[in-house]
Amino acid sequence: MPDLNEIVVIQRDDEIKQWYCLRIMVCKPGEKNALCKEDSIRIWFPQSKKVVTHASVEGFISATFKVEKGEIVYIVDEGCILSFTYTHYLRHRFQNKPTAIREAMKKYPGFYLQPTVYHPRVSY
Questions:
Q1: Any idea what DSSP says for residue 105?
Q2: Minimal CA–CA distance to 30: which of 55, 12, 7, 46?
Q3: pTM for this prediction
Q4: Fewest beta carbons less than 10 Å away: which of 54, 83, 104, 116?
Q5: Nearest CA to 96 among 3, 4, 6?
Q6: 63 and 17 in contact (C-beta within 8 Å)?
Q7: Domain containing residue 106
Q8: Per-residue pLDDT reduced to its tens digit, 79-116
Q9: Residue 63 domain-assigned (yes or no)
Q10: 120 occurs within a structural domain
Q11: CA 108, CA 92: separation in Å to the nearest integer?
């Protein structure tokens, strides 16, 4: 099961089942450092039974969501649990970063988890 900062790369057509998810993003891979192609983004809102694309909002009744080979499934909310029928590749979200940043993340694995509000460190 993927975690919050992990991306699932679909290897064959599949159906997703979800638990405790508010929204799930599905898209085709983008070019260079872009995570997704803009016109391929679909966001599934299981609670409100809607699928939002770049051009429309559609009602969606099914409890499972179909994905195609080559698409990316990305969890937006913490605590979301996804279940797949088949095995797929799993990669970390920050693999899209430039090489220098990836090297820094290997050296300091928690540095990107800093608080969003700047707070100076206090020296004791």
A1: H
A2: 7
A3: 0.70
A4: 116
A5: 6
A6: yes
A7: 6-112
A8: 888 999 999 888 766 655 677 776 777 777 655 554 44
A9: yes
A10: no
A11: 15
